[in-house]
Amino acid sequence: MADPTIGIIDPFHPRSLETIAAALPPSWKIAIAASQDPADKARALAMADIAFVMAAPMPASLLGNAPRLRFIQKLGAGVDRIDLAHCAARGIAVARLQAGNDIPVAEHTLLLMLAACRRLPLLDRTTRGGAWDKEGARGVSRQIHGATVGIVGFGAIGRRVAWLLRGFGADVVYYDPVRPGPDLERAHAVRYVSLETLTETADLLTLHLPLAPETALLFDAARLARMKPGAILINCARGGLVDEAALHAALQDGRLFAAGLDAFATEPPLGSPLLGLDQTVVTPHVAGGTIDNLRRVVARAVENARLFLAAAPLPVRDVVIAPPQD
Fold it and tell me: Checking CA distances to 54, which of 145, 268, 283, 324 falls within 20 to 30 Å?
């Protein structure tokens, strides 16, 4: 497999495709799905030895049409949309890019925090419509300075969020199932608390956890009810972490002030009642999506692919399913 074909099935912007193509060695080929039709995605994968995937699902029904596929490189950290059992049975190696999107996701988290605090989408819409409601906005707007910000999940993204918050004058607390230790806590100016304490005391609560059986619906109706009255929930991780019906109820009756959501249980969230609330700020799961960061991500993806082709060890932090041993 000296000159592999890279399969692309995500609906990338043309500039993103140019960025990916430019990062590949000249002798490597690229097979791009002509559309999001399953048949077009299957045709692209059928030619691929390696797949670079951002957010497109890779179920067994699709992978079964990829007889040459030997390596999947996720252009991010979450692999919950890849059928790992099928890959393991087929001997398809899978790698993630741990901490590959930490900078843009952390920046987007701050964007949603600020927009939710100030009800930015509502203000933008009403101002464009001719209203000039300065006092109405003042009566409901919030700020990060002086607030308690709770970070649930203190991996690369959670730590980057904490670092960005240093200049805001917030009290930052965090919870993670694995506590990293006092040195890192001092470096990021954060305090460790239990998940229960964080839930009950945070003015802004932001989620940075993978979706797994133990985290699915972590913020269910019962946990949402324990959040501090008037709190703001931010989710730039996975929609499946939150009971969306319960979140809608908590926002609609005013128990929670606002929510900033980049991820939904079903994407796109067509018909979701959360989209009809003035208290929500929503984006299309694009927190990690900047062209600047894509260059960095693709460079790491190409390096992992080179290592795979050379039968050399991949970075341990990136390995999900190790390449089969000869």
Answer: 324
Inter-helix orientation angle 102-117/156-165, to 10°: 50
Question: What band does 248 get if pLDDT is binned at 50, 70 and 90?
Answer: very high
Distances in Å between the Cα of 289 and the Cα atoms of 10, 157, 181, 191, 219 are 13, 14, 31, 30, 25
Q: What is the CB neighbour count within 10 angstroms for residue 296?
A: 15
Q: Identify the DSSP state of 323.
A: P
What's the angle, vertex CA 222, arms to CA 244 and CA 276, rounded to 5?
A: 25
- Residue 312 per-residue DSSP state: P
The model's pLDDT over 188-197, given as tens digits with 9 standing for 90+, comes to 999 999 999 9
Do the domains at 5-100+289-321 and 102-282 have one common CATH topology?
yes
Distance CA(159)–CA(174), nearest Å, equals: 9
pLDDT number for residue 324 = 87
Cis ω for the linkage preceding 273 (within 30 of 0): no
Q: How far apart are CA 63 and CA 60, in angstroms?
A: 5
Domain ranges of the chain: 5-100+289-321, 102-282
CATH code, 102-282: 3.40.50.720
Q: Which pairs count as long-range contacts for 311-315, CB under 8 Å and 24+ apart, including other chains? A: 314/93, 314/95, 315/98
Percent of the chain's residues with pLDDT above 90:
93
Averaged pLDDT for residues 168-172? 97
Helix axes 102-117, 291-309, angle to 10 degrees: 150
Residues marked as catalytic: 238, 267, 285
Distance between the two ends of the chain, CA-based, in angstroms? 15
Homologous superfamily of domain range 5-100+289-321: NAD(P)-binding Rossmann-like Domain (3.40.50.720)
